[in-house]
Amino acid sequence: MDEIEIVVLSVPDCPNAAVALSRSLEAAAQAEGATVRSRVVESEDDARTLGMHGSPTITIDGVDRFGEPDEVPQLACRIRPGEDPVPSAEEILRAVREIGSE
Question: Is there a contact between 35 and 4 (Cβ–Cβ < 8 Å)?
């Protein structure tokens, strides 16, 4: 598997950023060749450029694999109705492995 990059995008002081980073690191530890980094996004332009669909957004190789098709990039809190706003480590790992098999 080629190296896969997981990036946690968040607004300053996002209450869910640490959870997103922790779960991403947990997933990366189980996936061969995955790296994790975090990035604080402070402008609408950067949110659009990076494909941030609310904070936190977890991208895998530059793609938000956990968003809805009609979501627009935005500098705001991310809400997943009825769900934890952060994907589980298992969901992140599954997305990483799907990319690795493409």
Answer: yes
25 is in which domain, residue-wise?
Answer: 4-101
pLDDT score for 2: 72
What is the β-pairing status of strands 57-60 and 4-10? antiparallel
Give the number of domains in the chain. Answer: 1
The verdict on pTM exceeding 0.70 is yes
Q: What is the CATH number of the domain that holds 14?
A: 3.40.30
C-alpha dist (Å) from residue 47 to 57, 67, 73, 87: 10, 14, 6, 19
- Tens of pLDDT, residue by residue over 7-55, are 999 999 999 999 999 999 999 999 988 999 999 999 999 999 999 999 9
